[in-house]
Amino acid sequence: MAELILEAVDLEYSYPDGTNALRKVNLQVQQGEKLAILGSNGAGKSTLFMQFNGIFRPNSGSIKYQGQDISYKSKELIELRKKVGIVFQDPDSQLFSASVYQDISFGPLNLGLSEEKVAERVKRAMKDTETTDLEDKPTHLLSYGQKKRVSIAGVLAMGPEVIIFDEPTAGLDPRHAREFMQLLEKLSIEGKTIILSTHDVDLAYSWSDQMAIMYRGEIIAHGKPGELLMRSEIVERADLTLPWLIEMHTELVKKRLAVSVYPFAENEGGFA
């Protein structure tokens, strides 16, 4: 049985303006898992992510990494962020060095690694994200898609065990979105734990092996993607659409051209 690597326990968080962003959030993430978190804008996805590596501190409840409550002391937070990396939706929030190479190498250099080891990590991260040809380019001259890939490379170069992606394919053209998903699959095969938020239910349905659905700061469902997305009350409450594969299956079942593979659906408000 896989071990827990990250866990949110009774997590509560409100912003200074009084906005209640997280309400009694409980979520367990298994080591090596591919977890997609779905929810509309304002559901609390990004806020939860910033709890996972200590950017935000909960008002109550806790975050555990490998079974231990995380510490908010500076030294311990640095160690945590080596292990839990976040790629934010807006790449400009992560890029601040003059050139692509300098930006990607910033994190590994601050780990105290040798120049040779840093260069090795940077080269591999650039290769994985197809940014090798951008090595000497000023970051402010990059296109949005290039900035996105460079920000991902900067996190990969840190060598984290858990990588969190906030709306990773937003703003990418279809080719680069597809290549990004191939990169995620490669990282998963290497044993990384990957968490991503997305509005793309088709992407989440086809990629993840576990899914959490958030609505107004709460996790209202957590489980296998196919099972969750066949429950109409959850889909409607979270303002989600159905993956096209489920929509097609539903229509075929209605026309008696297919048999439902979800026997619980009729009893639980499903679509079959």
From TrEMBL:
Secreted keyword on record: no
Organism (species): Desulfosporosinus metallidurans
Cited InterPro entries: AAA+_ATPase, ABC_transporter-like_ATP-bd, ABC_transporter-like_CS, ABC_transpr_CbiO/EcfA_su, Co_trans_ATP-bd, ECF_ABC_transporter_ATP-bd, P-loop_NTPase
PANTHER family reported for this sequence: ENERGY-COUPLING FACTOR TRANSPORTER ATP-BINDING PROTEIN ECFA1, HEAVY METAL TRANSPORTER
Function recorded in the entry: Part of an ABC transporter complex. Responsible for energy coupling to the transport system.
Family recorded in the similarity comment: Belongs to the ABC transporter superfamily.
Keyword ATP-binding: yes
Protein name as annotated: ABC transporter ATP-binding protein
GO biological process, one term: cobalt ion transport
Topology in membrane: Peripheral membrane protein
